[in-house]
Automatic annotation (TrEMBL):
The keyword DNA-binding does not apply. Belongs to the carbohydrate kinase PfkB family. One of its GO terms (molecular function) is 6-phosphofructokinase activity. GO terms for cellular component: cytosol. Residues 20-298 form the Carbohydrate kinase PfkB domain. Keywords: ATP-binding, Kinase, Nucleotide-binding, Transferase. This is Phosphofructokinase. The keyword Transit peptide does not apply. It comes from Marivita geojedonensis.
Amino acid sequence: MQPVLTITTNPAVDMATSVEKVVAGPKLRCGSPRWDPGGGGINVARAIRKLGGDATALVAVGGTMAERLLSLLEVEGVPFIPVPVGAETRISFAVTDETTGEQYRFGVPGEPVTDQECQSLKESIAIAAKGLPIAVFSGSVAPGLPIGFVSDLNRALHPTGTRLIVDTSAAALDDLLARPVGVFVLRLDQKESEIAANRSLDTLEDARNFAAELVRKGVADVVVMGRGAEGSVLVSKELEVHAWGPTVKVRSKIGAGDTFVGAFALSLARGEGLEIALKRGVAGAAATVGTEGTALCRQEDADALFEQCKSEKLNAG
């Protein structure tokens, strides 16, 4: 198979640690930190590599943290294409309360990129995606990039035969919903789905109906909606299906959505159908929530969980 290209415009160096108890006031003595390369597309590429596939991470990097981020990618064996920007690569961090098991996750905003850097990103993506069947845009759009950046990417890539899988949020997601450009796959988690629908989506039928609405409007050929412990719902013009896996102990939710996207994209790149890809995504996400901190899935866990995943067709009416 050809590699999957992942695109990250707002990456981060992820740090995870723990403390006996999170309380306000005194200095808290944390455990040894774990450092990982982070950002949506980067995590997708990491997951694909951990699952035995090939992925190349195109990433906008700058400042003093850029070298740290790229060195972490090298350690994991993830091929990357750096696109230099003036903005400092950000840090995100997570702290687990050892007493309660609760995890506190913090993210800081990235710095703005310039119009010239935006053009450089678009050109670099076009070159990197040439001849590849699948590209993934995952994560937030960097400050300074136009709201329609992802839509512009789809318009540029679609005529070349590269299909774009998108997992984004905030203004970029709003733009995709308001001005449909027909991306290949759009993934939303439950919170994003309910904000987009402007209503609660309490049941699988609610999720299925809203996903079908987005497909009819031309937002995407395929819409996937994450449902947390319930699994995920996928809707296209030809298929409506729900997939779920076994209950696993949640140690950390960091990277679960990105692992879903990575496993899903890898499955499609290998020629598997949408229903199988959905189950592989659910299994990959479940394998990741069973790991500590910012660690992602292990292939053996994802494979074992896939064998336990189930799916069922959802029939309208």
